[in-house]
Model the fold of this input.
Amino acid sequence: MNERIRIELREAPIELPVRAADGEDGAACSFRGTTRAETHAEHGDLVALEYEAHAAMAITQLRTLAEEVLEEFGLGSLSIIHATGRVPVGQPSVLIEATSGHRDEAFLGCRAAIDRLKQRVPIFKIECWAGGRTRPDGVTPRPDRIDFDPQGD
Done:
């Protein structure tokens, strides 16, 4: 296992990881994806996003993409943490931190990690509105999640 990679699926809420510098990395770039306030024409204000994942597949794919990004951009380390469960408006759902010897590699590696995560990793969201719930186009619901209460009761 690569000691320079940290991968986690963590029940929400999550906090930004703090990685101690090893002396060779002079740059660290972090990305925090946060549930933003929105209003749906039919369902009203967004209350939260709820994330579900096939954990084993998600961890495997996160590790694979982290290894690719680490090598491709010459990173010193890469951390990827994604929330599962309910993430209220204003709270983070994904945190990525890339470290490298120089800032350009850290910025590019961080960007590549979030872009690839969104494209390839089986983590799905439900949008929980004040008056209902929706799924973004292309998301297949799990049968056991059909009766979802947007208020979390």
Q: What stands out?
A: The beta strands are 5-11, 27-34, 39-40, 44-53, 77-88, 92-100, 123-129, 132-134. The helical segments are 55-73, 103-120. The chain has one domain: 5-145.
